């Protein structure tokens, strides 16, 4: 029998590699945000590069140490993203990754970078992200697409007025229909997340809100209200990984990668096999199995929260509760400060920042919690953290489990 | 007034959109594995066979999920909001995105029986839509 963390081949026999041996060789050594919020005077490229410099600086590394670059820019001018950003920063990597699966890309990159470092394909991996998602729209959230003719499979959705929020609303409506989930239960997530944001000076929205505030906010796409939706901001972020051997000589306390997983099930919402279950069911199981930890071992969870429904579906799909029980799971402010399931401790995409793709910020906060540097929002004695990304329209997921070295 | 975005037909989809212009609703059926699929592709997504046939669909469907949208991702929808964004399950099996029209948006429910109708958006393009059966 293959052990936990061991890849199984299609024929059922053990693959020759134990992933645990590989994860052990890897450390996260630097994390940083750029300026975030509204930053109209800086390009998305600059935000990505400035976050990269800060993350390298805190580790005591320079850009000349970087030999692996992982990034994607999904908006104008972002084609061939890893080449583009490496060139922008004067880096000539020998390992490159522009995997573009939406907001989860940056969580998936941790898996890719970890394996590349563990096998010697690169030694210092830079994952970076920059976006001017609010400034690109002239400072107001709203429609961005103005295309008159749609090429490719999207022509079976866009003529019907599909939007990101409309897609997630379809999932929320179906979950309510199947399981009796309520708008109040979704609102619990937004309220709890805002409480965490109130303790993060970098969070964009810090004033407390109530469940009624969420329910009374403007309906965008039923059943999702304005306060069920993430922010639209500018932001950059970066994460630096290297070998555990090299990490011991650096300035930060290394954080271990215990297990990782990635998966996707569709691109367009109309093709999602089951609107109430995400690919986190796959990526989460892979991460837990490979890490050899249980749900009870997770001290803090950073769950991608593009919308309140994203969190609820992801908690179920990751197995923190049974399918259909997500509403009950988050009730009573369970995920708020002082609750027994600390989640989205920096204030999440709902209240802290969301530049179109949020994944890198789940990784950054998980690392900071494990280093114990989060001040008033620090989860006491956090030893094991889970970070999760969702990309597209509930399409792709990356899940990683990190531990205190 | 901005126009809603329209399909730009390509190899996989020319027959579908040409039929829609004639108010015919057709979907693909695999000549090898017998499965229907939507949206149209150059191969069967169940078995990768290229042996696909176009078949007239019944036009009968039920609402798998729906949402009343008060704004859209494209400015062309400004005078169509609020509208019902929906995924319907065709009687033949596959699901597709559509709008539920010719009814009060608030009255649309999951599980509701609907049937195909056609919106001649321009001379150039007709969109299959669904209305209460």
What key phrases describe this protein's structure?
heterodimer, A: 405 residues, alpha+beta, two-stranded antiparallel sheet, 13 helices, 32% helix, B: mainly beta, three-stranded antiparallel β-sheet, 1 helix
Descriptive overview:
The complex is a heterodimer of chains A (405) and B (133). Chain A has 405 residues and is of the alpha+beta class. Helix content of chain A is 32%, strand content 19%. In chain A, the strands form 3 sheets. In chain A, strands 5-4-6-10-3-11-14-13-12 form a 9-stranded mixed beta sheet, with helices on both faces. In chain A, strands 1-2 form a two-stranded antiparallel ribbon. In chain A, strands 8-9 form a two-stranded antiparallel sheet. Chain A starts with 5 loop residues before the first strand and ends with a strand. By secondary structure, chain B is mainly beta. A 5-stranded antiparallel beta sheet of chain B has the order 7-6-5-8-9. In chain B, strands 3-2-4 form a 3-stranded antiparallel beta sheet, covered by helices on one side. In chain B, a hairpin with a 5-residue loop joins strand 8 (113-120) and strand 9 (126-132). The mean pLDDT of chain B is 96. Strand 7 (149-150) of chain A pairs parallel with strand 1 of chain B.
What general form of chain A does the structure show? globular
What structural class do you assign from the helix and strand content of chain A?
alpha+beta
Helix-and-strand structural type of chain B: mainly beta
Give me the side-by-side strand order of the main sheet of chain A: 5-4-6-10-3-11-14-13-12
Main interface pair? A-B, 42 and 40 residues
How many distinct helices of chain A? Answer: 13
End-to-end CA span of chain A: 29 Å
Q: What's the order of the H and E elements of chain A?
A: EEHEHEHEHEEHHHEEEHEHEHHHHEE
Uncertain residue segments of chain B: none
What gross morphology of chain B would you assign? Answer: globular
Mean pLDDT across all residues of chain B, rounded?
96
The helical percent of chain B reads under 10%
Helix content of chain A: 25-40%
Number of strands of chain B: 9
């Amino acid at each position: 029998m293959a052990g936990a963390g061991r890849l199984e081949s299609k024929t059922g026999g053990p693959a020759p590699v134990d992933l645990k041996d590989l994860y052990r060789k890897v450390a996260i050594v630097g994390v940083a945000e750029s300026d975030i919020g509204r930053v109209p005077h800086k390009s998305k490229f600059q935000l990505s590069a400035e976050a990269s410099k800060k993350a390298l600086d805190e580790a005591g590394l320079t850009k000349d140490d970087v030999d692996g670059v992982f990034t994607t820019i999904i908006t104008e001018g972002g084609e061939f993203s890893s080449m583009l950003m490496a060139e922008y920063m004067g880096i000539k990597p020998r390992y490159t990754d522009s995997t573009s699966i939406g907001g989860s890309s940056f969580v998936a990159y941790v898996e890719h970078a970890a394996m590349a470092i563990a096998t010697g394909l690169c030694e210092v991996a830079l994952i970076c992200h920059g976006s001017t998602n609010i400034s690109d729209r002239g400072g107001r959230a709203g429609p961005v697409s103005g295309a008159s003719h749609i090429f490719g499979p999207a022509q079976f959705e866009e003529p019907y007025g599909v939007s990101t929020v409309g897609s997630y609303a379809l999932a929320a409506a179906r979950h309510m229909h199947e399981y009796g989930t309520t708008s109040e239960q979704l609102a619990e997530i937004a309220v709890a997340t805002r409480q965490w944001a109130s303790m993060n000076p970098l969070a964009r929205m810090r004033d407390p809100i109530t469940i009624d505030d969420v329910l009374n906010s403007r309906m965008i796409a039923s059943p999702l209200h304005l306060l069920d939706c993430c922010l639209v901001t500018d932001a950059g972020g970066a994460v630096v990984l290297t070998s555990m051997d090299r990490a011991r000589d650096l300035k930060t306390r290394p954080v271990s990668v215990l297990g990782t997983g990635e998966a996707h099930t569709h691109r367009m919402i109309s093709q999602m096999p089951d609107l109430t279950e995400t690919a986190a069911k796959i990526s989460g199981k892979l991460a837990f199995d490979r890490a050899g930890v249980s749900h009870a071992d997770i001290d803090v969870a950073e769950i991608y929260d593009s919308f309140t429904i994203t969190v609820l579906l992801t908690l179920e799909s990751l197995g923190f509760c049974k399918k259909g029980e997500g509403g009950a799971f988050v009730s009573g402010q369970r995920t708020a400060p002082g609750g027994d399931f600390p989640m989205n401790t920096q204030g999440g995409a709902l209240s802290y920042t969301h530049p179109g793709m949020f994944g890198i910020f789940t990784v950054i906060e998980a690392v900071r919690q494990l280093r114990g540097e989060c001040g008033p929002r620090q989860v006491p004695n956090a030893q094991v953290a889970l970070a999760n990304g969702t990309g597209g329209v509930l399409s792709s997921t990356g899940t990683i489990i990190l531990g205190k070295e | 007034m901005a126009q809603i975005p329209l399909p730009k037909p390509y190899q996989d989809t020319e027959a579908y959109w040409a039929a829609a212009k004639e108010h015919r609703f057709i979907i693909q059926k695999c000549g090898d594995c017998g499965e229907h699929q939507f949206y149209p592709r150059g191969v069967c997504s169940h078995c990768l066979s290229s042996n696909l046939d176009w078949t007239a669909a019944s036009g009968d469907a039920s609402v798998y999920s729906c949402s009343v949208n008060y704004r859209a991702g494209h400015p062309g929808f400004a005078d169509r909001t609020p509208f019902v964004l929906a995924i319907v399950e065709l009687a033949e099996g596959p699901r597709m995105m559509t709008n539920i029209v010719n009814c009060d948006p608030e009255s649309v429910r999951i599980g509701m029986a609907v049937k195909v109708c056609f919106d001649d958006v321009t001379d150039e393009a007709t969109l299959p839509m669904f209305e209460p059966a």
